[in-house]
Write a structure and sequence with these properties.
- By secondary structure, the chain is an alpha+beta fold.
- The protein has one domain: Lysozyme, CATH 1.10.530.
- It is 48% helix and 18% strand.
- It contains six helices and five strands.
- α2 packs across α3 and α2 packs parallel to α5.
Length: 145
């Protein structure tokens, strides 16, 4: 009983740490360009998380600030910026993999989709062809009407 209470207190304190903060993302390609963005995060983001965020900004920045914000929102909603995130779709027996949860139907290998840069780069190519339509979370977030 005491362990259960302690576990609940720990979980509660973990979720209490979540809050919105403003970040300035600096593109590794164009170091002088900064983009302000508000993102939900935990105080203890790992360096790799920030690297993924910067990769997204660098990849999408030529599409404009609004698209960068949408890309960050979608990537966070899809995978919480975790590059090795996977999800099995029982409905159609396929896997969504990586930062942008790229589906098997696109013909990329699992290894390619697990590599953060390759996943993000493919997401941009897909965005340029179809907009945010392929991402379920884009619909749930109201980005795609």
């Amino acid at each position: 009983m005491i362990l259960a209470i302690l576990a609940l207190l720990y979980i509660y304190s973990f979720y209490k740490q979540m809050e919105y903060k403003n970040f300035k993302f600096v593109s590794p390609i164009v170091e002088s360009k900064e983009i302000d963005y508000k993102v939900k995060f935990l105080e203890d983001y790992k360096t790799s998380d920030m690297e993924v965020l910067n990769m997204i900004v660098a990849e999408f920045e030529d599409q404009g600030a609004e698209v960068v914000k949408e890309a960050l929102d979608i990537a966070y909603a899809e995978s919480r910026f975790v590059e090795n995130n996977t999800h099995y779709n029982f409905r159609n027996s396929t896997w969504d993999i990586g930062v942008f949860m790229i589906n098997d139907c696109h013909g990329l290998s699992k290894e390619t989709r697990l590599a953060a840069y390759e996943n993000i780069h493919f997401a941009k190519q897909l965005y340029k062809k179809q907009g945010w339509q392929p991402w379920v979370m884009a619909h749930r977030l109201g980005i795609v009407k």
